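Before we proceed, please read the two lines closing this message. Report back on whether the structure tokens fit the sequence:
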Amino acid sequence: MKANLQVGVLGFGTVGSGVIHILEEHQAKISQVTGYNITVKTVLVRDLEKIADTRRKVLH
């Protein structure tokens, strides 16, 4: 049984969103190599409008 590991990300710009994308896209391989089921629990942003704009771009 693999342990669960919850992480937080500071920012949701190019790097933060990229980290989240990689964690989601390669979840099985990361879990296999590390022995952890990694999930993103929290994302901290300074400006909620920016995250709303980013979400719209990602969804379209």
User: Anything to note?
Assistant: The mean pLDDT is 85. Residues 14-25 form the longest helix (12 residues).
